Each structure stands twice: as C-alpha cells, then as structure tokens.
Amino acid sequence: MWNKNTLTEKIGIRYPIIQAGMAGGITTPELVAAVSNAGGLGTLGAGYLNAEQTQESIRKIKQLTDKPFAVNLFTPETPEVHSEEVNQANKWLSPFREALHISQVPEINEIQTTVFDQQIQIMIDEQIPVCSFTFGIPSRSILQQLKEESVLLMGTATTVAEAKANEESGMDMVVMQGSEAGGHRGTFSGSFEDAMIGTMALIPQTADQVTIPLIAAGGISDGRGVLASLVLGAQGAQLGTAFLTTSESGANKQHKQAVLSSREDQSAITSAFSGKPARGIQNDFMIKMKQYEKQLPAYPIQNSLTKPIRGEAGKQKRPEWMSLWCGQNPRLCKSEPAGERIAAVVSQIERLQK
Amino acid sequence: MWNKNTLTEKIGIRYPIIQAGMAGGITTPELVAAVSNAGGLGTLGAGYLNAEQTQESIRKIKQLTDKPFAVNLFTPETPEVHSEEVNQANKWLSPFREALHISQVPEINEIQTTVFDQQIQIMIDEQIPVCSFTFGIPSRSILQQLKEESVLLMGTATTVAEAKANEESGMDMVVMQGSEAGGHRGTFSGSFEDAMIGTMALIPQTADQVTIPLIAAGGISDGRGVLASLVLGAQGAQLGTAFLTTSESGANKQHKQAVLSSREDQSAITSAFSGKPARGIQNDFMIKMKQYEKQLPAYPIQNSLTKPIRGEAGKQKRPEWMSLWCGQNPRLCKSEPAGERIAAVVSQIERLQK
C-alpha cells in the first residue's frame, strides 16, 4: 500500500500528502481542516501571526476537524538593525509607497523572539500533533520541551547537510525543499544559490544519508508528483501552490488568478519582498527592485518595510506590487475545494499503480 | 511492464534508459556500445567532432554493437564575430593561458555550418537509428531529409513552449532537460534563467501539453529516478553524469574524480567556458570569470577561445581550469562499467515495483 509508511503511521494520517504551511493568511482554518478531513495533513502557516492570532486559528481548526494537523513556525532570526541600510531601502521603496498612497513608513525596532516563544507555549498548551519549522532549527531546549509533550517535530532542509543537521537535532521528519518550490527558501546554512537543488536530485541523495522520514517538496501538484516522490525515497509529499488556488485558501483573488494563468517559466527568486530569497511570479516590484537586492536589509527587517506595500497592493488589486508566491508548477493548479484536490491525487495514484 | 511503451517500441530498445550525448570525448564508442548492448540507448556526442571523427566513431560503434544507438548533434549557431569582444575576452583569459604556458591565441574565423551539414549526410549514409539535437531545432528541410531516410528525430527542450515547438517541427520525441542537468542548457528560446525548471515540475506540465514521447533529463541517476520519470509522465529517462563516471567514459581522470567526490550543492551554471550556460562543478575558472560572463562572446566563439585552456588543463591535471560538467546528482555516481549501471537501474526498478 503506497499510503502506509512510517510517516503516515507516526502522524496518524491516511495519505502522505502534506499541505505546506504557507504564511500570510493563505492557510485559513478552513483550508487546514479541509486537508486534514480529506486524509492529508493540513498545516497552519503561523509564521506571521502573533500569539493571539495563532491561538485563535488553532481553536477554529479544532472546531472544524478532529484529525491531526500541523502548525508551521518560523525559527526566529535576529539581525541587527542598521539605520542607514533601512533608510536606503526606504528610499528605494518610496516610489511604490507613493503610487499606493501610503504615507507612513514602518518603524523598525530591535528584532525580538517574544512571539516565537509564546507560540511554542501555545503548541504545548494546545497539544498540537505536529509542529514544523522553517528558516532553521530552534534551540535544543525548545525541541526538547516539545518532544516531552509528544509534539512531533518536522524540520525543513534544502541540502543533504541541512537534512543531517535536522536529524541530529532530534527532528522526527524533514521536509526536503527542492528548487521548484514556491515561497521562501528554507536554506539556513551556506548560500541559497548553491542550495537550489531540484527535487528529482535532492530526494534520493538525501534518502541515502538520513534515516528519518523525508517529505518531498517543490514542483509537486498531483498524483504523479506524489507517487514520484515516494519512488524517489520520500515518505510523503508537501504541496503548496496546488493548495494556494483551492477554494478554502485565503490567498487573495489576484494572487490566485496570477497563479492560475501563469506558465512554468514565469517565476523567479527574489529577496526584495522580505530580505530572504523566495520564489514568486515575476512582476514589476521584483523587476524594479532586482538591482538593489544585495544591499537590502536582512529578513525580517525588509519584510516589515514592504508589509504596507504588499497589504495595500492587495487591497487596491495591484498584483504587480504583491508577493505572488508560486512554485514552478502553476499549470497543474486548479480552482477547486481542497478535499477534491486530495481525492483527485489519490485516485490518480491508484490509476498509476495499476 | 514498466519498460514497454511507445518510446522503447519506436527505437527498439529493451529499457527506456538513454545515455546523454555528452560532447568532448566523453562518449567513446566503447561507452555508447556498452549502453546499447545492455539494453539502453547509447549516444555518441558528436557536437565537437568534425565529419571524419564523426564517421570514424560511428563505424567503431557499429563494430561493437548491433543494437540501436543515437548520435547527438549541436544545431549550429552562427553569431557574428566582433573583434573587440574577442580581444576583451582574450585579455580576461590571458592569466589562465599564462599559468598553463599556452603561447598561441586561437584565431576566430567566421562561424560556418559546414561540419553540421556534413554530419547530417553521415547520419543518412550510415543509417543512424536515432539522431538527437541540442541547442535548437534544425531547418525543416534537414528534418524532412532525415525523416525520409527513417532516422528517428529526438529534440531537446527546457520549457513547455520549446517542447511544443519540437513537436510541431516533426521531432519523434523530445528530451525535457530539467534544471538539475549537467553540461550545457538546451534552451533555445527566451532567457535561460526563466527556463531553469526542475524536472519534477517540467515533466508533468509538458506531458499534459504534447503527445510525442518525453524523455526526462536532469538529476536522474538510478532506478528511483528512472521510475519517477515514468510516473511523472515521461516514457524514458536520460542519464548523463551517471554515465560520465563509468569505466568506458572518456572523461578524463580529474573530471571523473571531481564528480565522484562532489556534493549536490557544489555545481553552478556558468557561461564562461563556452558562451552558453552550462552546469559544472564550481572551480577557480568559473569563480574568476563570473564577473565578465555577460560581456563574453557568444557560443561557439567563447568555446573556441577557451579550448586550449581546457585542453592544457586536462593534460596538466589542473581541474581548477577544466570544464567539470556535472549534474546535481554526483552523490549517486559510481566508478563501474556502464552495463553494470544499467543492470543496477533495472533491478532497482523491479524491486521498487514489488
């Protein structure tokens, strides 16, 4: 049986299909619950939520499903704030702010990890079945604390070395993010360019080197991709873009429409939105900011600086200035309920296995 | 049966495993014949051979096997020679020439297509079963001529649009080259950066849009990769780097050793060796030339300029100045006879199917 393995047993899910924890309002409680109710693992992308929003979302999810689900957190980064760098970035961003009639410039304070610490406590209080992490591995003491409360730990890696580091840290499983993946790169050691490894190459090479279950991510949208991931040596597959366009997803209409009308060769990697490399559909913001990319403040500083731009662009329906995160698989995406997507993936796998 | 499909039937091979037509002396007649004798499709990489060498290699292959094999040709490009650009490139290349004690600077004449035209005639005269093309689609009249002589035509594409163009041109099948692939990018329309699509995303999206058989390429080295390619919608898989390190391969010892000791995150794309983007293990030449990449002469002019450097670096065992072409899958490569690699791929697929 293709759907019975260590991963599905450990988590207690019917199918090894994981919905990526896309942050920024995409993973509504309705989406997370729909995926889990259909037999996959829904994931709340809590990276940009505060403690209150995190708890509220979790409680809503629990009202909608009694199946296991995951919460994705961003392992915090605390770069120093250099005011000159921030001022320079603000200068480059001002044409976009002007065009959108944004008068206030975000104030950047010292970066704190308070929200993350509160979120960890919520994971424990709410007895979250699976907690996944992006942007690095949290401290040993935090992982230990979660382990003692029987929270399953899922890391993210983009190279074999990062997968090994996840295994050594005590993660129960690790998402291997190939270069095809939409949204932020999970690379946390070395240069992100070197770590742009295609899923086809990344999975078998990692499977030979680590023993914890691997979850393939990047370019996977349907039964072909999920079954191929299992063949390559993963025990599950994570789908992001394919769930972004579903009915329950909170991605705004312009974002969904951009993905649904996009080709495989229209996305690119940009650091301009957040200070961290991420894959999105190429638009005016990415093209105009490209020349400054190497001089922008680090994540999450740049992310805070562009937040009003992204927000207003969404409200004013200006996709050219929104972060249109998207993997290299937009042609395979559909507008449909998440449960139907999962049912289609499952029946495609069963057809392929005949 | 995983190995029975339109592709294997058309070509008359036992397994849908194609050895990439790597140019530059790697695909010795012994390698091509070993692959074909083991049930795959061996390919002579004739891109850099003259007419005489092409014919001689074909005749040797025929002495070593009575199975079908392919010849890969480079669809010619004839950029104008700008002497200022060439002089500038020579200035940048002079430190490497000096270090290798190369006194002569290659003379660049107007680019001709004579060799390609002669090679096409050889395909016909020698009744080559399969002729594959990289770097674009030859003229309609050439393809027509080959079709009339029952030569099967195999194109190369890196996007869905390029695959459609291949299908419309009359190609019988098309290699879909994912971003993981080693050596030169086959992109022939649009920017190569946009066409860096991972194999996992490229295959299913193309399979939905064209009807000729697809051959997956990029990051595939073993039974897992070949079976995953079939699951994704391809009818075959092309392996390059995995055959580069075999005993019969003509790659020099330093090149083989570099691949065998390399990690998945050590290759990068460079145009510095040939004027055309290609993936190789990052070395001193690539790093030092990176800053000039956008100002170098086009392929094949830059290729001619660096030829003595690559040649001498090989002779003097200086891998830091050689073109160490390699895909993102070096950890899966072994030093073994090509026939053993194919047998291992086949038995791994059969185990995976149980």
Helix content of chain A: 40-55%
Describe the oligomeric state of these chains in a short phrase: homodimer
The CATH class designation of the largest domain in chain A is Alpha Beta
CATH superfamily of the largest domain in chain A: Aldolase class I
Helix segment count of chain A?
14
Output the CATH topology of the largest domain in chain A: TIM Barrel
Q: How would you spell out the order of helices and strands of chain A?
A: HEHEHEHHEHEHEEHEHEHHEEHHH
Write a structural description:
The structure is a homodimer of 354-residue chains. Helix content of chain A is 41%, strand content 13%. The longest helix of chain A is centred in the first third of the chain and has 17 residues. In chain A, helix 4 runs parallel beside helix 13 and helix 9 packs across helix 14. Chain A has two domains: 243 residues, TIM Barrel (Alpha-Beta Barrel); 93 residues, no CATH class. Chain A has 14 helices and eleven strands. The model of chain A has no long low-confidence stretch (mean pLDDT 97). With 354 residues, chain A is α/β, with parallel strands linked by helices. Chains A and B meet through helix 8 and helix 9 of A and helix 8 and helix 9 of B.
